[in-house]
Amino acid sequence: MSAQAAHSLLRPRPSGLGPFLVLSIAGHVLLTAGALGLSWAFAGPPIDLEQKPIKASLVRLGKPRDEKLLPRKEPEPPPAPPKPAEVAVQAPAPPSSAVKIPSKDAKPEKAPDLKKSLFDAFSKASKPAELEGAADGDPLGDSAVQEGERYHGLLQAVVKRNYDVSDTIPEAERRTLRAQVSMRIDAHGEVLDVRLAKASGNDLFDAAVLAAVKKASPFAPPPPHLADELKRDGVSFVFTP
Amino acid sequence: MSRLAFVVLAFPSFALAQQKVIEISGANFRPMPLAVAAPMTQDDAAKKVAAEFDSALVYDFSACGLFQVLERKGYLADAKEGVTAGSIAFNRWSDVGAEALVKTQLSTEGDTIRADLRLFAVGAGREELKVSEVAPAKNLRRLAHKLANAVYRFYTRETGPFETRIAWSRKSQQGRDVYVADWDGKNAQRITSDSVNVLPALLPGGVAFTSYRQKKPFLFVSRGGGEPTLLLAKGAMVTGAAFSHDGKRLAVSVSEGENAEIFVANADGSDAKKVTDTKFFLNTSPTWSPDGKKLAFVSNRAGNPQIYVMGADGLGVKRLTFQGNYNTTPAWSPRGDVIAFTARDERNAFDLFTVNVDSGKIVRLTQDAANNEEPAFSPSGRLILFTSTRTGARQLHVMTVDGNNQLALPVDKGDYATPDWAE
After folding, report:
1. Interval B35-57: pLDDT, tens
2. How does pLDDT run across A93-146, given as a tens digit for each residue?
3. Which of A78, B120, B148, B294 could form a disulfide with B60 if both were Cys (CB 3.0 to 4.6 A apart)?
4. Which of A69, A207, A235 sits opposite B22 (nearest CB)?
């Protein structure tokens, strides 16, 4: 080959494009497969489109009151609107032995949705957390609900809400008053018996603490692990003013 | 560890027999729901006075702050129901929310009236107290106050406010006059009948006040409702008299030119000593601590009127209020813990507040009810008497020390000012 022909543009030359293309395609395939694999591995729970949206609104806090100004009384919250009377008309329950007949357009039963059941469990567990905190409590502290037995915290809160004592009790006596009420409740939260286990010596105070427990009943059904204990041994409330 | 596990496993009942104990404190103290049945009368003469007796008794229970007197319209019991426990349908009283029930009977014997009161515990369905009192017909309201006091004492073991005295000054054609009356403003006795007489201060058996009756406004005293006599004449004006709780000493503000200083004297006006000394400033409205060791007063030494506290000898002056720029008319609670005062807030409304003597914490008692001024504590410290323009004219009102249960005194409309309250 002449030197001229060796420099011709038409002469085939060796090229690295082929292996580069092969490597590039293989790399992209691997990357895509990896990304898909990772997204599959860390995929979140399926989105339930029927779930109601959670509405959140931002509230702007008012300007703090000038410390040099005299205090103002907080306006009392308006009374809760009366609940519409619910007319509970219960359909007669089918006998337990009855066999369900699927309707024409019935869909096959879905397997229980784990995410939904978990969500429900959290929402149930969070109910006692709606209770008011103690006025003298630590604003940053854990709630009593979290700290102690949740159900006992619930009992304490609902009884305290009904713990009304007459102003007529002498102030000097208030420092030493102490009364104990024992009660037993059934699995539905209904009071089986309630009695004054230790009297304070002041009839008005004793009547008030008994009334506090009675007015608070019926209670929420106790959790299964406490139901037997509360039915057999009951629970005691120690009241001090 | 294994032993403990054995005990728990072998004797599970031992572990389970431990009853869970829940501690509950922080009671909601509230007035006791009380039903007061209309008095039963045993003769025509008693029937004529029953309404007045009833109004006194119901006012006493309503205004003392311990009871929530239930509206009589809502009562379910038979109006002719008896007055003994056996004849009372207690369930009808508990149905209206009553925890206690008061029943009274009136009868006349010549010029005297006999009143019987029975107090029942509605829940227990039993009689708790039975009291009988006899009084001349003219003292009908005082008869009701005695019976109310018996109920008050039954519950609190304290004497109620019903037989205490109050004083005020009221606008008249000649100027202003001083009156002394029962705690509900009834049986008012006019102490002065000419000139301008203001700022009454009750003392055992009498009342002192600033009067212009001898041209210059000096301090006068009337004992037993008699003719006023001069008690203290000093400087250009003597105002704001306050007697210590033991009745032995007197604190006043003496003005001279643009200056006003606090003086402490014996109760008869002798041996007056100046205990403040701030040239060009005002020091007024002294009020004694219950132990007689300290005085609270108003001073504008910081530029605007504020409440200050000092020893009765004038030493250890300390400013107590730092909120608001117009704080006046302090009244030291007989319990010692707080001082009530009038303040003008940023809306230019005059309202009542208390300031804790130790912490300086200020609590508002009145709000959004026109102007409320000039507090005076009841002798027990449970109640505060004050003036308010919420009904138009400046009227006397009473409330509990925390600002609850604000009620107008059952007196005719007029311009009432600077009340005082004593045993």
Report:
1. 999 999 989 999 999 999 999 99
2. 444 444 444 444 444 444 445 444 444 444 444 444 444 555 555 555 555 445
3. B148
4. A235
Domain B32-156 sits in CATH at 3.40.50.10070
What was the ipTM of the complex prediction?
A: 0.80
- The CATH code belonging to domain B165-422 is 2.120.10.30
Residue owning tokens 């005990």: B7
Model pLDDT for residues B243-294, shown as the tens digit of each residue: 999 999 999 999 988 899 999 999 999 999 999 999 899 999 999 999 999 9
B159 contacts on A by Cβ (under 8 Å): none
> Domains in chain A, ordered, with CATH?
142-239 (3.30.1150.10)
Residue B165 near residue B181, CB atoms below 8 Å = yes
**Least Cα separation, residue A122 to chain B (angstroms):** 26
Question: Which residues from A are below 8 Å from B18, CB to CB?
Answer: 233
Task: Check CB contact of A207 with chain B, cutoff 8 Å.
Answer: yes
Determine whether the interchain pair B66/A167 forms a contact, defined as Cβ–Cβ distance below 8 Å.
yes
The size of the A-B interface in CB pairs under 8 A is 120
Beta bridge partners of A165: B29
Domain ranges of chain B: 32-156, 165-422
Which single residue is written with the structure tokens 């329950």? Answer: A93
For residues B299 and B305, the answer to whether their CB atoms sit within 8 Å is yes
CA distance linking residue A181 with residue B219, whole number of Å: 61
- Which chain B residues contact residue A203 at CB under 8 A? 121, 124
